[in-house]
């Protein structure tokens, strides 16, 4: 008997056997269905989060360094050590730019939520960013309309504003904002540009709900007690390590640290966020894997149990088949195919359930269900079928023909 | 007959180990030759070892000691796959309890030996249908066993035993679960098969069933008690009856 015809026969037989015991097969499948639903939903959630994160993180340039008091991703020291550090100062930016050779643009950035008004229109909770002209080079800005403020305008702290696209849409639904004047917390600014759309961060808050103004104007509105982040762009991404070292040296000099003192600032970059995210994703994945493996294990045990019942019920039939010339391999295949069919059925039903579920979840949390995940789900259910069917199938194939025939 | 040995047993023993040093000596030094085309009945009281002997002849079981040659090939030390092949192609079983697969129809039951010997679908359906027609069940091809009478079931079983053209047909009390009229019908089939040159070995309790055969082997306590051919007049009588009855129920000769 060839392998192909053996498979075909096994499929037919298993199908008939399952049809004869529909309720039992369905109940057994339930365990696998639950397992596959949790595998695929977990996988979809993780891949969705990863996608969203990768999209969002591209708003933080891979070639930009952020000098701050706090390290991203938590750092490896006691939190109060970071808290006790000295704050960043706006003039660090100029000092760094003067000494650095591997950095092309350096800008201090301060932020605060504020309110924008244009005639009778109001935009609340807008991120107001104070910075210098360098920021447009640091983050490689592009504009729907207009431009960023120049070095001279920035140093002169002119009352100029660059709008994020959301703010522009909100205040100027049918007009060109450039040249109009808006009020930020009561002070008047002239709009000179609208930044192109950036999207949102993890689907949570928009990166386009902002207005950028010269840092001196920011201090006019909110006072001088805001501490900036110093953002610096690396000339060549391949020199990242050297650039960080150079920046560290300059910062230590600015801070007047002696060689045996630790850094009292952090140089952050995209990698740190990615690493932190990877850690979280690994934890979620690990917990998910455990829960999933557990449910598949329980489902597999259910299948094994039912297969033992099936073998016992059909002992006589196995004896008959052996008397007619069925080989061990043939009997083994018959029962393995049966358990795999149960699991495959469970896997397919599981996918049919988890696919619409993932769409539903997508409304709250970005998920995506890649085709590969469906494929993995099917493979896993097949594997569970084979693993949990192998022992009962081996028992069936090794039955003694005489004993099996005598079984009533 | 041709004189070609189909079965040769040399000092075959079967011992069942019951544990606690209790052993059942079910067969003791059985030596036996059966030639091609013979029609043999095995008789003996209950527990004498008939089924044990049949299981060994049918390669369902292996002797504890001794030699078993099937078609001249030593099967005493064959492995499982080789035995499966002999059961599939060399032997046709007819059981007392029919032993059909309950979920499958008559056609599929008859097909089974062909499936296990890898005959392609079209050919095996065709052959199975023809064989069912031969046993008079051409109209019952798609009936499940529980939709058939006892005699019909046994005829399905006979069709299944025949389909792979085996060297011998082994029938362990084939009429044991049938009323005497249906039993006679089955015996007529076996008679027909014998006439067509099949080798048949039959186990029975009933003298009148055994008289259909040409040779009766009596065993007692696992040993051969007697092994005698049936006298001429019985043979002729049975032969004559069989022909008449067979034509009355439409069996092709
Ligand atoms: N699997 C077994 N384990 C132990 N002893 C067995 C086994 N099978 C048969 N025997 C014993 O072997 C002897 C012969 O049994 P067997 O079934 O061959 O008798 P039989 O002639 O077919 O009887 P019956 O006419 O009742 O069918 C009996 O004593 C029986 O108890
Ligand atoms: Mg018996």
The number of helices of chain A is: 14
Estimated structural class of chain A: alpha+beta
Number of strands of chain A: 12
List low-pLDDT spans of chain B. 232-253
What's the shape of chain A?
A: elongated
Q: Could you report the average pLDDT of chain B, rounded to the nearest whole number? A: 87
Mean pLDDT of chain A: 88
Give the end-to-end Cα distance of chain B, rounded to a whole number of Å.
20 Å
The greatest inter-chain interface is formed by:
A-B, 24 and 27 residues
Helix content of chain A: 55-70%
- State Rg of chain A: 33 Å
Layout of secondary structure:
The complex is a heterodimer of chains A (about 400) and B (about 250).
Chain A (H helix, E strand, L loop, with lengths): L2 H18 L1 H36 L6 E5 L10 H5 L8 H8 L3 E16 L2 E11 L3 H4 L4 E4 L4 H5 L4 E4 L1 H7 L9 E4 L2 E9 L4 E2 L3 E2 L3 E5 H8 L6 E6 L5 H16 L10 E3 L1 H44 L1 H9 L4 H35 L8 H27 L3 H6 L2
Parallel strand pairs in A: 3-10, 5-7
Antiparallel strand pairs in A: 1-11, 1-12, 2-3, 2-6, 2-11, 4-7, 5-10, 6-7, 8-9
Helix pairs in contact in A: 1-12, 2-10, 2-12, 2-13, 4-9, 10-12, 10-13, 12-13
Chain B lengths: L4 E13 L5 E13 L3 E5 L6 H8 L7 E6 L2 E2 L5 H10 L1 E4 L11 H11 L4 H14 L15 H13 L5 E5 L7 H16 L3 E5 L3 H4 L4 E6 L2 E7 L2 H17 L5
The structure holds adenosine-5'-triphosphate and magnesium ion.
């Amino acid at each position: 008997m060839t392998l192909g015809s053996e498979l075909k026969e096994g499929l037919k037989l298993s199908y008939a056997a399952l049809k004869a015991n529909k309720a039992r097969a369905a109940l057994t499948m339930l365990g696998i269905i639950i397992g596959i639903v949790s595998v695929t939903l977990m996988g979809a959630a993780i891949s969705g989060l990863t996608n969203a994160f990768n999209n969002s993180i591209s708003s933080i340039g891979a070639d930009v360094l952020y000098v701050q008091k706090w390290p991203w991703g938590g750092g490896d020291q006691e939190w109060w050590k970071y808290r006790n550090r000295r704050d960043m100062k706006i003039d660090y930016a100029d000092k760094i730019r003067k000494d650095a050779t591997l950095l092309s643009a350096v800008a201090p950035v301060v932020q605060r939520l504020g309110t924008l008004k244009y005639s009778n229109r109001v935009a609340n909770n807008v991120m107001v960013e104070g910075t210098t002209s360098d920021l447009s080079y640091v983050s490689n800005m592009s504009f729907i309309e207009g431009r960023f403020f120049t070095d001279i305008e920035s140093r002169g702290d002119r009352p100029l504003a660059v709008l994020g696209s959301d703010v522009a849409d909100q205040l100027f639904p049918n007009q060109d904002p450039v040249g109009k004047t808006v009020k930020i917390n009561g002070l008047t600014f002239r709009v000179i540009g609208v930044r192109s759309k950036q999207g949102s961060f993890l689907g949570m808050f928009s990166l386009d709900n902002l207005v950028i103004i010269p840092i001196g104007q920011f201090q006019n509105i909110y006072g001088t007690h805001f501490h900036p982040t110093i953002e610096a762009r690396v000339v060549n991404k391949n020199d990242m390590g050297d650039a960080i070292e150079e920046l560290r040296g300059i910062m230590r000099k600015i801070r007047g640290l002696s060689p045996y003192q630790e850094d009292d600032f952090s140089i952050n970059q995209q990698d740190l966020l990615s690493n932190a995210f990877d850690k979280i994703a690994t934890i979620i994945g690990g917990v998910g894997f455990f829960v999933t493996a557990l449910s598949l294990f329980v489902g597999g045990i259910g299948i094994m149990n039912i297969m033992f019942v099936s073998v016992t019920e059909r002992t006589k039939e196995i004896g008959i088949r052996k008397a007619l010339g069925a080989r061990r391999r043939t009997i083994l295949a018959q029962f393995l195919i049966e358990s795999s069919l149960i699991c495959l059925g469970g896997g397919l039903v599981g996918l049919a359930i988890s696919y619409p579920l993932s769409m539903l979840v997508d409304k709250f949390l970005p998920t995506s269900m890649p085709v590969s995940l469906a494929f993995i789900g099917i493979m896993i259910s097949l594997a569970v079928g084979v693993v949990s069917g192998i022992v009962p199938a081996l028992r069936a194939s090794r039955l003694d023909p005489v004993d099996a025939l005598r079984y009533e | 007959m041709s004189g070609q040995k189909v079965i040769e047993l040399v000092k075959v023993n079967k011992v069942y180990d019951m544990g606690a040093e209790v052993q059942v000596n079910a067969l003791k030094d059985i030596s036996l030759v059966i030639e091609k085309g013979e029609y043999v009945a095995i008789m003996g009281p209950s527990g004498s070892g008939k089924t044990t002997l049949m299981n060994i002849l049918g390669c369902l079981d292996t002797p504890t000691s001794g030699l078993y040659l099937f078609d001249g090939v030593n099967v005493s030390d064959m492995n499982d796959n080789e035995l499966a092949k002999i059961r599939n192609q060399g032997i046709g079983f007819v059981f007392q309890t029919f032993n059909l697969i309950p979920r499958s129809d008559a056609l599929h039951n008859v097909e089974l030996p062909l499936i296990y010997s890898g005959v392609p679908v079209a050919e095996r359906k065709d052959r199975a249908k023809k064989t069912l027609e031969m046993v008079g069940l051409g109209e019952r091809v798609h009936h499940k066993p529980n939709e058939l009478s006892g005699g019909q079931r046994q005829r399905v079983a006979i069709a299944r035993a025949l389909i792979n053209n085996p060297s011998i047909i082994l029938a362990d009390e084939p009429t044991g679960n049938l009323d005497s009229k249906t039993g006679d019908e089955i015996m007529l089939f076996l008679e027909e098969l014998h006439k067509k040159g099949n080798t048949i070995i039959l186990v029975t309790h009933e003298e009148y069933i055994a008289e259909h055969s040409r040779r009766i082997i009596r065993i007692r306590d696992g040993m051969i008690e007697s092994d005698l051919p049936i006298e001429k007049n019985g043979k002729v009588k049975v032969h004559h009856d069989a022909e008449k009855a067979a034509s009355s129920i439409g069996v092709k000769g």
